[in-house]
Amino acid sequence: MAANETDAGEQAEALEALLDVKIAHIFAVLFCSMAGITLPLYFKSKISPATTFLLRAFAAGVILGLAFCHMVPESSGIADMTEYGSLNGALILLGIAINLCTERLSIDMAQKQENRQKQGVDESDRISVTALTGSLASPQSMENVLATVDMPNPQQSEASENNSGEAPSKQLRESKDLISAHTVEVGVIVHTVIIGISVGTWSESRASLIVFTIAMAFHQFFEGVGLGTMLSAASHRISTLRTVLMVAAFTLSFPASICAGIGISYTSNQETNQLVSGVFESIACGLLIYIGTISFIAEDFFASEFVNTAENLPLRWRMKVALCGGMLAMAVIGIWG
After folding, report:
1. How many CA atoms lie within 13 A of 5 on its CB side?
2. What is the pLDDT of residues 13-67, one digit of tens each?
3. First to last CA, the chain
4. What's the alpha-carbon Rg for the chain, to the nearest Å?
5. Cα separation of 268 and 265, whole Å?
6. How does pLDDT run across 261-272, given as a tens digit for each residue?
7. 16: Cβ contacts below 8 Å, ≥ 6 apart
8. Of 44, 88, 243, 260, which sees the most CB atoms within 10 A?
9. DSSP per-residue string spanning 259-305
């Protein structure tokens, strides 16, 4: 009993000795998170399309680097806690499947709503024409009506059809950007909450915690740039209130989880916490892998008409460099973290 009390006392002293560094960690990640996510939103009207694609390419590299250099290694330990050795990979695949089904379902619902609106407009036009023709009682009335009706210009009609075809495509793209932004934020928040709790319960050396604080400050800044870029792209389909709530959720999730970790540091069950953390970390990893490869790389590098024009060949090379730069930044931070 005395030995247990002595160990508990030493653990409490070690945790209290790191309390000032943990508080500094809270303010560091709070500032870097706020700066990273607000910069793309603040300069939205001043950023050219080419710059937006460069930021998205860099964000894709950050997201993939976060998933493979941070989350996969951190969650791989759950394979040793269960009889199923591939649990980590199975949960990552589950995260990818969840993201795919959610995004596809949301796009299908958006398309269904747009088709319903089109049918409503066509039906109202048909009813108007029927009422007009039914009210004509004589050839003279027909001439009077035709004299007051503006006949459509074929060129204007063709332009209107082209615009109506472009509008749903733009709306679908904005819907997908909004869905991707929400999904990325969920994955990032799950990841940062888990890391924040681990920081709050940190009991290792003071020097390693200081280095980890610097690494996580850069980490949060780059993640904020990626999420802010996605919110900026979906700004036409998201209200100001929702934008503020998403910014607040991303900015406050890490500091709040550190405070929670400090609070439970004396009562936590280490083995259970590692298992639960690994499960959520693996699912979040699958979410981010899907976003980085499909929502960013596939759409921007291959499906974007703006990027894939002959005159934008230098832009495509700069996007490749930005993508690799984001991956390299997270890989270097992974060495420290």
Report:
1. 2
2. 666 777 888 899 999 999 999 998 888 888 766 778 888 788 888 888 888 887 8
3. 36
4. 27
5. 6
6. 888 766 656 676
7. none
8. 88
9. HHHHHHTTT--HHHHHHHHHHHHHHHHHHHHHIIIIIIIIIIIII-T
